[in-house]
Specification:
Blueprint (H helix, E strand, L loop, with lengths): L15 H42 L3 H19 L1
Helix pairs in contact: 1-2
Length: about 80
């Protein structure tokens, strides 16, 4: 009995459905990464705004300026 090599069975010649699933997984990973980055950025902005509000309530000009500068720098870093 003779066995012949078939390109269809080659590991480099994946089934188109398999390639599509791999691409979808990669796309999902990218979306999850972007979502988590946005979530963390929103949380950081919220914390800085709360610190600014607290500084205003305490009439702490130094803390207000420090937190405001941090917020501005952080928001600018997100735009880059």
């Amino acid at each position: 009995m003779e066995y012949r090599y078939s390109q269809q069975n080659s590991p480099n010649n994946e089934h188109p459905l398999s390639q599509g699933l791999h691409g979808q997984e990669l796309l999902n990973d990218i979306y999850i990464d972007l979502f988590l980055k946005q979530l963390l950025a929103d949380q950081q902005i919220g914390l800085l705004r709360a610190a600014i509000d607290d500084a205003l309530d305490k009439r702490d000009e130094e803390a207000f300026l420090r937190h405001t500068e941090s917020l501005i720098e952080f928001q600018q870093s997100l735009e880059e």
